[in-house]
Write a structure and sequence with these properties.
By secondary structure, this protein is mainly α. It is built from 9 helices and 2 strands, in the order H-E-E-H-H-H-H-H-H-H-H. Helices cover 70% and strands 2% of the residues. It has a two-stranded antiparallel ribbon with strand order 1-2.
Length: 200
Amino acid sequence: MALLSALAPAPKPPSVVPSSKTTGEAVPCFDEVYAEHFAFVWRSARRLGTPRASLDDVVQDVFFVVHRRLSGFEGRSSIKTWLFGILMNVIRAHQRAAGAGLWRAKAQADLEALSDPAAGPLDRLAQAEAARLIDHVLDALDDDKRAVFVLIELEQMSAPDVARALGVPLNTVYSRLRLGRQAFTEAAARYRARERGGAR
């Protein structure tokens, strides 16, 4: 999974400020949570199949929820775990509003490569190909496997944190990860074979 590691920057620890609670727990500052984790929420929303036309609305709704609930954050999970749980709920709400079929059709229609504009031409080509491959293969996974795969393989989160974020047993996470890796490998092989065939 070297390709995946290269595309997944190491997560940064959230900055916190002292809580006003008598327990002495630390409560993150909203502005710092937003600055530290906006990219994570945006990436995760995209990788979970959010159509580009809906990305801004989904991410904005996530941070509306965060703003309302942050004072009650108790630190029983990491901020990223907590944010991902909120993101999953927001995405489900948008899917219901749009209709799951239309949502997925839009997501498939606008798959596109993202590359670093500062990279050289050959690097950009490799990044574009990697982005196309990952977008294509993630789209082949069902929602449950996709969420686990994104968090563990792309965001480097631990399985226990993923279980907490998704509200499922740890064994379920491991099972979905195993099946997701298998499906990813098979879909990647099909994609590469099709690309080779098209290049002839």
